[in-house]
Write a structure and sequence with these properties.
The chain contains nine helices and nine strands. Strands 2-1-9-8-7 form a five-stranded antiparallel beta sheet, sandwiched between helices. Helix 1 packs across helix 9, helix 2 crosses helix 5 and helix 3 crosses helix 8. The protein starts with a helix and ends with a helix. The structure holds zinc ion (ZN). The site of zinc ion (ZN) has 8 residues, from helix 4.
């Protein structure tokens, strides 16, 4: 009889735990849904639908898209330099340390005509230096890159991709916005990626995303070839994660006809609007 009572008691406890977990999940889901509606409303009001501007906001814990205004989140697009952090990860599969490299500007295919001089990985990411990442890409083993693309659920780079393709100077390696956002979420959650995250923090303080300086964020900019509704040959991209120490929100913005550095100005305004809204909701 005692054993039957113990069994019944154990079953009741288990049922109570399942019920509690279901209620907690439902509450989390409901509050996420309210948060998503609030973000969509805030950003859509200030940045109404436009062919020139696309954006998405992702919850880094769940990978769920909270709000967005993008023609098609799952259609692969050229992403320019936003591949660079993953190239660093691929390089690190077969090397113990990141190199220093010299950028002489235009002659090394860098966007900064006079060049960046000698850079380490962190500053090369912050400045999105093409010369540094072309040099790094020449030493990436294809198998190492394949391992990283699989780990981060990114589409494989084209077969025999040149360093110029890998760093996004040519628009052949295309990645869907939501796929790219989720890969960055994974990257930001791994403490082993310290050098890369430091480079993304530096980008907001003194690099290509310095328009975000006032915001507590990690960021990477890119300028990609435009394929659709083009205003000029380039599309500016910026991806930001906030807060920097423990990112909870990811914002990806694309603006036609400009650079990633210019798009950072809009991204900074969006992050500020999200922060203000978050403070108001507390
Ligand atoms: Zn450079």
């Amino acid at each position: 009889m005692a054993s039957l009572t113990r069994s019944l008691s154990a079953i009741c406890t288990a049922l109570a735990l399942v019920l509690f977990a279901s209620i907690t999940d439902a509450q989390t889901s409901a509050s996420n849904s309210l948060l998503a509606q609030a973000i969509q409303s805030t950003l859509s009001r200030r940045w109404p639908p436009s062919e020139n501007l696309s954006w998405l906001v992702l919850d880094t814990a769940s990978g769920q898209v909270l709000a967005q205004q993008w023609p098609s989140l799952n259609d692969p697009i050229p992403v320019g330099s936003l591949t660079k952090p993953f190239l660093a990860l691929a390089y690190a599969r077969t090397h113990n340390t990141f190199p220093h490299a010299l950028c002489q500007g235009t002659q090394d295919r860098c966007w900064l005509p006079k060049g960046h001089g000698t850079l380490d990985l962190e500053h090369a990411l912050a400045q999105s230096c093409n010369a540094y990442f072309l040099a790094l890409s020449r030493q990436i083993e294809p198998v190492a890159l394949q391992t990283i693309t699989q780990l981060y659920n990114l589409p494989a780079a084209p077969p025999d991709a040149t360093p110029a393709i890998l760093i996004g100077l040519e628009p052949t390696w295309r990645i869907a916005p939501v796929t790219l956002a989720r890969a960055y979420t994974r990257l930001a959650n791994q403490p082993d990626n310290h050098s890369i995250l430091t480079g993304m923090r530096l980008a907001t303080q003194q690099g290509t995303a310095r328009a975000l300086h006032a915001e507590d964020a990690l960021a990477k900019t890119g300028t990609a070839s435009c394929l659709d509704h083009c205003l000029a040959s380039g599309d500016g991209l910026v991806l930001a994660l906030t807060p920097a120490a423990n990112p909870r929100i990811l914002l990806l913005v694309r603006q036609h006809g400009t650079t990633g550095a210019s798009t950072s100005i809009i991204a900074a305004q969006m992050l500020h609007a999200l922060k203000t809204q978050n403070a108001a909701n507390r």
